[in-house]
Amino acid sequence: MAVELKNLTKRSENYSQWYNELVVKADLAELSAVRGCMVIKPYGYAIWEKMQHQLDTMFKETGHVNAYFPLLIPKSFFSREAEHVAGFAKECAVVTHHRLKNAPDGSGVIVDPDAKLEEELIIRPTSETIIWNTYKNWINSYRDLPILCNQWANVMRWEMRTRLFLRTSEFLWQEGHTAHATSQEAEEEATRILHLYADFAEQYMAMPVVKGVKTENERFAGALETYTIEAMMQDGKALQSGTSHFLGQNFAKAFDVQFVNKENKMEYVWATSWGVSTRLMGALVMTHSDDNGLVLPPHLAPIQVVIVPIYKNAEMLQRIDAKANGIVSRLKAMGISVKYDNADNKRPGFKFADYELKGVPVRLVIGGRDLENNTVEVMRRDTLEKETRTCDGIEPYVGELLEAIQSNIYQKALAYRNAHICKVDSYDEFKANIEEGGFIMAHWDGTTETEERIKEETKATIRCIPYENFFDDDKTPGQCMVTGKPSARRVVFARAY
Predict the structure, then answer these.
(1) Cα(395)–Cα(299) distance, rounded to whole angstroms?
(2) pLDDT per residue over 67-101, tens digit each?
(3) Are 155 and 171 in contact, with CB atoms under 8 Å apart?
(4) For residues 188 and 192, what is the distance between their CA atoms, to the nearest angstrom?
(5) How distant, in Å, are the alpha carbons of 28, 130, 219, 256, 355 from that of 136?
(6) What are phi and psi of 416, to 5 degrees?
(7) Which are the contacts of 380, defined by CB distance < 8 A and separation ≥ 6?
(8) Is the pLDDT of residue 373 over 90?
(9) Which residues, 6+ apart, have CB-to-CB distance to 413 below 8 Å?
């Protein structure tokens, strides 16, 4: 093993430390000079680009278009939707001046006190306010609706405790903001995006998710309803992986966005917003990776196949190059991303460990004996199994293997999640089980007071009211495990990131 792997903490010893080390050692990201902000390194950004490309394709297939709105938002905009500003007030970064100048004593630069802004500007924590102020100029009649806009952007939410990808002050995301003529259309949009996110998570990230609705206490600030996908990490904690919000007419009323409906009457527009962020990078790492490094789903791996030569001299390398380059060309023609690493500045053993650490799904090795036998060694990253295959037909085999790996790591994650879901009927049982991690299906009386008590006493939150049943009686009325009051159904509890 290469030096990078020798010091990687094992998941069983310290899961949090394992994650932090792996993100850095696998060249995904690192801390920056700005507190709470990260540098996404080229390999990490390549994964994010594949996520971005796939999601962007899915958005456009459902009629959405991309736009871009300002990074800076007038402070007064946040005063128009009281619940919204209350939800973000403590996280806002504020721009107060527009100029620097040299210090009189020559010590450097200082903020020019004469350059104070007439109105402070907020670095966007989310863009509802600036977008709805803009939509007022775009919408007059029902013929102008719907507006289905998405924005790829960065946002700033001041965080005290940060963690690479999972929680940073600045992060990358997409935020959809749509406007509709009816409540029904807006609600359908919000749920359509929820299912789109779930499809992306399961089909591309190979990450099983629970779809459901947030409680009133956990809703997005300013929303009438928040829909969520919740994933389980390998330590049993939940990770909110995407949300979609039905905003009703709150923002339309705050920014006076009205339209003439088909009955020739003025009406406020109905709205949604929805987003996923670079937090999905953290989800990808924690869902699949192991003590040897990353395990990437082939559908999102920047390098799906790497070919490494083992040779004794230049003549042998030349012959291997010819064979490998043929395989590379044929794999690329199949749409498979492949790298042939014949660089002579690193030994094969180092390359093996490095690509294993970075989660490359398939590794092919060609040596002198393989030249004689017309064979290649194939290793799959998910199981670390090796086999020797003939070079004839290796390309379609590798294509099938990539799909087998994609399916296998999804099934493995699904089996882990399902094995860590339980139901309880008493609060004592709940307290005991929550220490073991996982999702707990339990009855709750529907009150914020009980929800807050459970959170304070156990650090567990209601992740969602799920659409699906995990147990036969999930949707059967019962009694709240805490108060004994009537409960409409079981909900999903977990400790979460």
Answers:
(1) 17
(2) 999 999 999 999 898 788 888 889 999 999 999 99
(3) yes
(4) 6
(5) 41, 10, 25, 7, 51
(6) -65, -45
(7) 361, 362, 401, 404, 405
(8) yes
(9) 206, 207, 208, 287, 288
Query: pLDDT tens digits, residue range 233-275?
Result: 999 999 999 999 999 999 999 999 999 999 999 999 999 999 9
pLDDT confidence tier of residue 2, bands split at 50, 70 and 90: very low
CA dihedral 118, 125, 300, 208 (to 10 degrees): -170
How is residue 93 written in tokens? 């970064």
Please tell me the number of Cα atoms within 13 Å of 132 on its side-chain side. Answer: 29
Q: Supply φ then ψ for residue 100, to 5 degrees.
A: -110, 165
Burial class (CB in 10 A: 0-12, 13-18, 19+), 41: middle
Tens of pLDDT, residue by residue over 191-232, are 999 999 999 999 999 999 999 999 999 999 999 999 999 999
At 6 the pLDDT is 60
In a 13 Å sphere around the CA of 2, the CA atoms on its Cβ side amount to: 18
Give the CA count within 13 Å in the CB-facing half-sphere of 273. Answer: 23
pLDDT score for 1: 46
CB 495 within 8 A of CB 237: yes
Q: How far apart are CA 451 and CA 325, in angstroms?
A: 60
Domains along the sequence of the chain with CATH: 6-76+125-288 (3.30.930.10), 305-405 (3.40.50.800), 421-494 (3.30.110.30)
The torsion angle over the Cα atoms of residues 10, 11, 17 and 23, rounded to 10 degrees, is 90
* Distances in whole angstroms, Cα of residue 320 to Cα of each of 315, 367, 380, 388: 9, 7, 21, 16
